[in-house]
GNAT family N-acetyltransferase (Microbacterium sorbitolivorans), 430 residues
Amino acid sequence: MSQNNAQNVPIDVTARENLAAQGLTYRAVGEEDLADYLRAKQRGFLGPEPTNEAIDAERNLLDRCRAVAVYDETAAQPYPVATARSWETSMTIPGGQTPMWAITSVTVAATHRRRGIARNMLEGELRAAQGAGYALAGLTVTEATIYGRYGFGPAASVQSYSIDTRRAGWGHTDPAARILFVDREQLARDLADLHEGTRADRIGDTDVWEGHWWDAAGLEPDAEKPRDIRGARAVDVDGTLVGAMAFSIGDGPDHSSHVLRVIHLVAATADARAALWRFALSYDLVGTVTAELQPLDEPLPWLVADRRAIRRTVRDHGWIRILDVPEALARRPLAGPVGVRLEVTDPLGLAGGAWTLLQLGGQGLQVAPLSDGESAQVTIDIGALSAAYLGDVRLEELAAAGRVTGESAKIRELSEALRTDRAAHLSFWY
Ligand SMILES: CC(C)(COP(=O)(O)OP(=O)(O)OC[C@H]1O[C@@H](n2cnc3c(N)ncnc32)[C@H](O)[C@@H]1OP(=O)(O)O)[C@@H](O)C(=O)NCCC(=O)NCCS
């Protein structure tokens, strides 16, 4: 499966027919429709009308993505009443990289909500991705209540921080990295280079289109308060780039207590990470540092003198959906040996089935359909298996919530087999 082929993935016929029965047209967005598509997408996410300049900056969207939209020909304006966009991304999973069908920009106009348009689009996207051979689909979500019904599970969580800098102090040695300011163009390049250089080490992260970093650095035409964004880079003793941070500083309760917001922080070494945090926490006239999308194994509490100065909120972030169970399991190493008869239920009828998973010492995983008369030892729904796929969510926890049933010893065996050494993390929104 090569990249840039999203345009070749056809529109799902069932979804098109279901929506046609409601008098709606579901089709791919072409160059000529792109401006109206972008306006509808912005409206769907409660954003302002995009400027012509911002629309022009997104003209290359269809080079890599497939945008779909739903049109109501009776509408007063030509804007679509629903939007979605998808493309092939490369996600880091245990043992390497795998292609994933990424979905974003799912919106339905307030005039057309709750009549099944999103359901048809989502089910259509999943069938289309499966038909094109993808074993996984993924997305990030505005609300945690929307996508479980389509078989997605929260597989990579994040935490946000609010840090009282004066209480936090510093409890670590001097990091062996220097911090330097950079302009926003250099910041965008540094963020892009470092993300690409580090994402293979982080299960759950994916590749990113270049424009994302221009956006993070405030260089997109419609960026909010772009001139507030500052850039800092960390270099090691040889002057090599090892970390970067986009941040902005806003008003706080008084002039000596501004709020420094970390927009994005990426580091290739532990010293770079520590140096960037120390730089943020010791900024003059700043009383609070905030940061979102931080990994669950972020070492910050161990770097400061008083960990209670850090308020943390954990939240779901990277959601994935397995579309082909044998293929998805075979792509990631399991800690063996494993011998489990597994049944996967799927309310959409896409990826359910029952298999024997067998991995003997030193050999790869073999997945074979259950024979007649064999019964499953572990039963799990597709959303729960998707949540556990990256190794962060334990099956015992899902069993306690009734999402996994079966023999306790086999649940534990499979849970151990899926486990990984490091927290999964998705470092950005898409
Ligand atoms: C979320 C959104 C796309 C749903 O569109 P919609 O066409 O109204 O949804 P549907 O009518 O197809 O509803 C499908 C199912 O999702 C449920 N649902 C829809 N919106 C929901 C929401 N915001 N929270 C929880 N459930 C929701 C419906 O109740 C329905 O459930 P059921 O089929 O299991 O009975 C739409 O409300 C929207 O555009 N919201 C703002 C943008 C946004 O948040 N998009 C999601 C991006 S990640």
Remarks:
- Residues 329-418 form a domain with the Nonspecific Lipid-transfer Protein; Chain A fold (CATH 3.30.1050.10).
- The longest helix spans residues 117-131.
- The CA atoms of residues 168 and 206 lie 32 Å apart.
